Each structure stands twice: as structure tokens, then as C-alpha cells.
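Q: Two folds, back to back.
A: First:
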Amino acid sequence: MSFIVSFVLAIGLLIMPVLTMPAIAASPSSLAALPGFSKLFAGEAPELGLKDGHLSTCPQSPNCVVSQGADADHAIAPIPYTGSREQARDLLIKVLGVVPRTEIVAQTDDYIRVESASRLMGFVDDAEFYLPEDESVIHVRSAARLGESDLGVNRRRLEQIRFAMQDLGA
């Protein structure tokens, strides 16, 4: 019993300084609190983007949601807005700027792509936002790069972005 307690305390003393040190933020993949894990769990960036005015469909895994052409398990509503598309885009960029551990990696007049890293292990999720010219909505897609389940993180992150947009008057 004494050995187990000593072992747990030793591991705790080794990990504690790592968990309490400040994060150095250069990109989402470098934001994981445990050194070395950020690259291990970041995965490779998938090929994403618009294809004929549509975001990519989701794979069969439950770690993805999309507002265009999804089945019931992967569907999420687009984010509606009032005002101009440019105003909505500017507001979206401001909202994305305060989403923890999130970085805009690509943007055009009608498309924004971000990467978000999990706090502890550095798992990276890719989110896309499409602002079609003929609709007053922002179509969304978000998916984990690795693993089968994301425990609903991608859906919750997009819903938080939706609520922030609504609160700020989109």
C-alpha cells in the first residue's frame, strides 16, 4: 500500500509543474498543457473547403456536425444573421477571436476556417464557416481530426458561437 501511495505522489509531483505552467500560444497545436502531446494528438489537417457552394459532408463517425446536407445525427442548423454579409463576417471573426485555443487559418470573403485545440491533450478540431451570397445564414461544419467520438465538443462549440453571434446582434 505504501508503494502505491508513494508512486501516485511521485507522479503527481512530476505532472503538477507541467499542469500549472502558463501556456505559450503560437498556434492551436502548441496550446496543449502537456508537452509533447500537442503534436501527437493534433493529427493531419484534412482537405476541406467549399465544393460547388457546399461544405464537406461528415464521415460516419459521431465527431462531426454540418449544416448542409447532413443526416439526422450530424445535422446542425446554420447561423442566421441580419444586416449585410460583411457585417456578419466581421462579427464572426470577432467572436472567433475569443474562442479559447482557436486560430483562423484561412479566410476569404465568403469562407472562414479555424483550428481549435483541446486544452490538455491538444486534440485539434477543424471548423468551417460559409457565408453564401444569396442567403442570410452562415453554414457551419466542425469535426475532430482524430478518434471516433468528440463527446459533443464540436456541436457545443458551434452552438456557443451561434449564441455569441445572437447576443451581439447578428
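A: Second:
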Amino acid sequence: MAPYLLFLALGLVALVQVSLIPALGISPVPPDPMLVIVVAWGVLRGARSAMIWALIAGLWLDLLSSGPFGAYTLGLLAAAGIAGFGSGTIYRSHWILALVMVAVATVAQDLIFVALLWLGQRPVSLPDTLTRLVLPEILYNMALMLLVFPLLSWVSRITGRERLPVE
């Protein structure tokens, strides 16, 4: 995939995530499509490729969101590492692995976000955050993974082992 196309595609997803999804008001806890995309790509192509996607995606989200700058980038880089760890298994392209990885990555990303809020001296209740925000987000992200994983599997097959210049 051409680097400029990847950059624009991830920017479009970031824009949808920070503006359109909250505006729809479907749920007080929206899914995290960028996390799902990074994890799916990490399961399919490994940590190295997913780290590049996570860096681009995280910077887009940090620029467009109102959260602490760097929170999305750190969270997505951690998610890419988690997904890359899972990609080393025999069942690399199996959707069950992708579901497990997105659940673990959601918890990791949210804990990083909460830690940065806490370090910024914003009031945070960890038990309340885990029960009211993280658990529903895990379910939404797993449901979204069922849609995203087959699509990115197809993209992975079409592009073969094409790599970005920095890989």
C-alpha cells in the first residue's frame, strides 16, 4: 500500500472516530475503530508493520482529539506490540486470535490513557472507569473486529508482502 494512501486512509478513520461517531450518539462509550484496525493489522502482518500504522494513527488522533497529546500514540503503540506478540502464533490469521488481542489491547490502551490523565492531575476513578467504560468498549471493539478483520485480511492478501519504505 502506498505510504500516502495509508496516511490519508488512517487520517479519515481518525476524523470519523473523533467527530462522526460521538456525534451519532449511539452509545455513551463508543468503539475505537483505530485500535481495532491497528490490532487487526498487527495480527495479520506482525508488530513491525503495526507499529508504523499505530504511529501514524496515533498522531492523527492526538492532533484531532481533545485528550492529552501523546495518549493515543502511546496506547496504539502498546496495542500494536500486543497484537504483534499474538501474530507469532500458528493461528495468525484466525479471527479468534484477533478478538482476544483486541480485548487485551483495549484494556492496555485505556489504562495508558487513565494513567496519563492521572499524571496530569485529573480526577480518575479506576474501578469506575473499568466497569463503566472499559468493559463496554471491549464488547464494541470485539464486535467491530468481526467486521474489520475480514476486510483487512483481504487487503493483506491483495498487497501480498508489500512493505512500506520504512519497514
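Q: And?
A: The mean pLDDT is 86.
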